[in-house]
Give the backbone structure.
Amino acid sequence: MDGNDRVAAFIQELDWDRLPERVRRRARICLLDNLGATLAGTLTPVSRIAAAYASETWGGEEATILLHRRRASAPGAAFANACAGNALDIDDDAIFTKGHPGAQLFPAALAAAEKAGASGKALLEALVIGYEVSIRAGRCWHDHHDIYQACGSWGSVGSAATAARLFGLNREQIRHALGIAEYYSPNAPMMRDISHPAMVKHAIGWGAMTGVAAAGLAGRGYTGIPSLLGFDKYRDWVADIGEQYWMADWVFYKGWASCAWGHAACVAALQLKDKHRFSADEISHIKVRTFEEAIALHQGCPTTTEEAQFSVKWPLACLLIDGELGPDQVLEHRFGDPAVRALMDKIELVLDEEVNRMYTEVKGQDLRMYSAVEITLKDGRHFDSGIVERGADRWDEDSLERKFRWLTGYVLEAEVADRLVELVWHFEEVPDVRRLTELLR
C-alpha cells in the first residue's frame, strides 16, 4: 500500500466514536477557534470583496457565506469564508506546515457539509481528516519545493481530503481528488507577499476552493495525478496516519492578529514592561534582535490591514500601548493614531546571528520563534530581555471561549455567541450543520 492508498483508506474509514478523546476535544476546539476567526474576519475589505465576487461568479444556493447575507456554490462559499478566516491572521498554525491549516479546512468542511446535508459529527470527522492530511501534505510540499510556497498550496490537498470525506467519495475517487488538488494548487511564493503585503496573502481562499472543487470533480470521474503523499521518499512521513494524530499536540492557536514571526519580540517586550513597570510614553528606543524572516516583514507605517499584520513594528507598538492586538489594532481606522505611529518610529529591527541560527534549526519542524528586545527609556534606563522563545501555546476550552467571545463581540450579539459556543461543544450531536449557519443569519 503506497502513501496515497494509505491516506485514502484513512479518509474513508475514520470513525468519530473510535477516535481518542484528546483528538475529539482538539477537533471541537479547532472548530470554535476557526469559526471565531472567520466571523471577525468579515470586518475586513478582503472579506467583503471575496463575498461579493464569490456570490456573483460562483453563484448558487449550496452553501452560506457567513455574515454577508449571501450564498454560493460550495467552492465559492469555501473561497469567501476562507478569505475571511485568515483575514486577521489570528487563525491557527500547525507543525510542519509553515502556515495556517484551519482557515482553509473549516470553510471547506462547512461548505461541503452544507451541500451534502451532513451532520455535525460528519463535519468534525472531516476536520480531523483535513488536519492530519494537511500536516503531512505540508511537510512533503515544503521538502519537495525549493521556493517557500504559502498555505493555499498544500492546503488544497488537505481541503480536498476534507471535502472528499463529506461527499462520500470511494478510495479511487479520493486518490484522484488529492491529485487534482495538488496539481491545481495555487503557486503562492510566500516571500513575495511578505515583501509587498496584499490580499493575496497566504492564498488560503484559493486553497479551500481548489480542494472542494477537486473533490467535486473526482466524484464525477475527473482524474488526477498521484499526489506527493505517495512518493516513496515520504513513506515514513505518511505511514503513521490514523495512528499518530499530530493535530492533538501540534496545532498552535494565536491570541494576536499578526504574523507569528513577530510574536517572540512581542513576548520579550511585554515581559520587560511587566517586570520594570514603565509605560509606553517613557520609551525612547526599542531594538529588536531577530531572525531573517522577521526582518523581511513590512517596516513602514501600514496603509492596509495586510501591511499591519505582516509587520513586527506596528503590532509591537500597539501591544505596548493597548495591551491587546486584534481587530481594533489592525483595521484601517487605527492607522492614523499618532501615539502608535510615534512609538513605531522608535523601533529598530536588527538581524541577530544567534537568533537566526536558533530559528533556522527548528523552522518547519517546530513552532518555536526567537527574538531579543532591548528597551531604553527617556530617563536613560536600559533593559535587555535576552533571547526569548515563543512556543506553541497550549490553549484549553476556557481560553478559546474567551478568545471567541472577544473576536465575535465585534460582529455578534452576546446571546448569539453564547448559543454558538454551546452548539460547538456538542457539535457531534447536531443532526444537520445548517443549525450553525441558521444561527448566523
User: Anything to note?
Assistant: The chain has two domains: 3-255+397-439, 260-390. The CA atoms of residues 119 and 339 lie 49 Å apart. Residues 3-255+397-439 form a domain with the 2-methylcitrate dehydratase PrpD fold (CATH 1.10.4100.10).
